[in-house]
Design goal:
The structure holds 2 protein chains of 2 kinds. By secondary structure, chain A is α/β, with parallel strands linked by helices. Chain A contains 5 helices and 5 strands; from the N terminus they run αβαβααβαββ. By secondary structure, chain B is mainly beta. The chains are: A alpha/beta, B mainly beta.
Chain lengths: 142, 382
């Protein structure tokens, strides 16, 4: 009995040492007429294959800097691939004449950009409280 | 036909060299597809300073829609039986925009083949060539169908579509990837994607007359006239791609001899965690008024890149190619080391070994690709 309690306590201690990662929130401007976007559409947008919203507006994908942990987790959750492969892909797309996602230096800058530009889409780790922003997909933390 | 060559003054080329030096020295901080552009940084700073911006329904600004980028490639060559040289092979600038579905212009202007130093002749700051490599507009008919008009890269294989030096592994391009087909098209192209995620797509194109501002690469360069072709991409994603290409072209040689080429090719690439494998096979039937040694250009290559450590990659390639005009085939082996710590810049060093019969026709467009020797390059996409 004592042994089982010890094992359980150790496991709990171990779990508390590795806190669950926060979810990733995919966000758009509140004026966009969509409530949800599935993962394959998000992937198509960030692969620069889907470039217009249903109403014909340009889609402007926003990215965080390469070293950001949110970006690494977003890449893993949406593409099941590495940020390096995606960077390489975007460089090729740039050469092909398709503009890669615009980089914003912080989550706050992403939110401000999406507030300002109706067709923009981005992702953040902290659930935005801003009334101008709408969450259209919540990707589980991993 | 419309080729034009600019001779710059010495001072202008010195400014160019200084600019190039600055770019290369600052390559660690250069931006590319994955890096914030000047406009991105400016915009982020501007947004930080205007947090109260009530912009929920604002339109994207001018700078949100346009992008300026490019690449630079500085090449060193130490071929056997030919003078060593240092060349600014490319300084390319791209301007692109996405205004709406119908207006998506793109332009690439390029200064190329600028000799900076040649063994026995010393520093060279006296000539440069410039061309418009690409100039087109994309009309997005639907999400999956695009019409392109202007001058663009022919979709003959994946290498041609991403041929910028920072994006490819070797200094010298495989002959199979560039030979005996038109690399550029001036005309119309339609592309349809059957499935966005798998990249399954088909492209067809036509060049009704001739190429606009062809790049001048050698004295025996053929001029591609009426050309039609297509590419069927079976799959293209972050892990691998594969596609078939067809092309029929009428050519005019420098001595006004007309001939025509009918080509079929297959190319594929697999990016595994521990290696990258790439291949292409090409067959071009050559219809020539005078008999040649063979009725076709044909060949293929197999290339392997293996990541090592600290951004270093080992590269190996073997290529076999039979030119229709040469009796003997050419075998080319390449081994090299590429330092590519980020996807947008690289430092390359390679040894190329060609078979004895390779240099039978010096001065052709494939001159450097057929030399045995040591080659190196510094390439930055910005």
């Amino acid at each position: 009995m004592k042994q089982r309690t010890f094992i359980m306590s150790s496991l709990l201690l171990l779990l508390s040492a590795f806190p669950a990662r926060a979810d990733i929130y995919v966000i758009v401007n509140k004026d966009m007429h969509l409530e949800e976007l599935d993962k394959s559409d998000i992937a198509a947008i960030y692969l620069l294959k889907k470039r217009s919203w249903e109403n014909g507006d340009n889609i402007m994908p926003i990215n965080l800097p390469a070293q950001s942990s949110a970006r690494s987790r977003f890449t893993s959750a949406v593409f099941n691939s590495s940020p390096e492969k995606l960077s390489s892909y975007w460089d090729e797309m740039l050469f092909k004449g398709v503009n890669p996602p615009i980089i914003q230096n912080s989550e706050q800058a992403v939110i401000l950009f999406i507030e300002r530009v109706k067709g923009a889409i981005g992702y953040v780790e902290t659930k935005p409280q801003n009334p101008q922003i709408k969450v259209i997909q919540q990707l589980p933390g991993n | 036909m419309f080729s034009f060559k600019y001779r710059f003054r010495q001072s202008a080329l010195q400014v160019l060299a200084a600019l190039l030096g600055s770019l290369l020295l600052g390559c660690g901080s250069a931006w590319a597809g994955d890096q914030p552009s000047f406009f991105d940084q400016w915009q982020a700073q501007w947004l930080d300073e205007h947090k109260e911006l009530p912009a929920a329904d604002a339109e994207p600004s001018f700078f949100d829609k346009w992008r300026l980028s490019g690449y630079v490639n500085l090449e060193g060559a130490g071929p056997k039986n030919a003078p060593a040289s240092l060349t600014l092979d490319d300084l390319a600038l791209f301007v692109s925009a996405r205004i709406n579905r119908w207006v998506n212009p793109f332009m690439e202007a390029e200064i190329y083949a600028v000799p900076l130093w040649i063994e026995g002749k010393g520093a060279q700051f006296n000539s440069a060539q410039m061309t418009i490599e690409r100039l087109y507009n994309d009309f997005e008919i639907t999400d999956s169908t695009t019409l392109r008009t202007g001058k663009f890269l022919a979709p003959i294989n994946h290498w041609n579509l991403i041929h910028a030096s920072p994006l490819v592994w070797t200094v010298n391009r495989p002959i199979t990837s560039t030979s005996s087909v038109a690399n550029y098209i001036t005309g119309l192209q339609a592309r349809h994607e059957f499935d966005m995620m798998s990249g399954h797509a088909v492209e067809v194109y036509v060049q009704p007359y001739t190429e606009f501002l062809p790049v001048s690469v050698g004295p025996n360069q053929p001029s591609y006239q009426t050309t039609v072709g297509g590419r069927w991409t079976l799959h293209e994603d972050l892990e691998y791609y594969a596609g078939f290409s067809l092309q029929y072209a009428r050519l005019q040689n420098s001595n006004n001899v007309d001939s025509s080429h009918a080509s079929v090719s297959f190319d594929a690439n697999w990016k595994h965690q521990f290696f990258e494998l790439e291949t292409e096979l090409l067959y071009t039937h050559v219809y020539n008024p005078t008999p040649l040694a063979h009725s076709a250009d044909w060949g293929g290559y197999l290339q392997l890149a293996v990541p090592l450590f600290y951004g270093f990659n080992a590269i190996g390639r073997y290529e076999h190619f039979q030119f229709a005009y040469k009796s003997e085939p050419v075998d080319i082996g390449v081994i090299g080391l590429v330092w590519r710590p980020e996807s947008h810049y690289s430092l390359k060093l390679e040894w190329q070994q060609t078979s004895d019969g390779a240099n039978q026709v010096p001065g052709t467009v494939y001159d450097q690709q057929l030399h045995t020797g040591l080659f190196g390059a510094i390439a930055v996409l910005f």
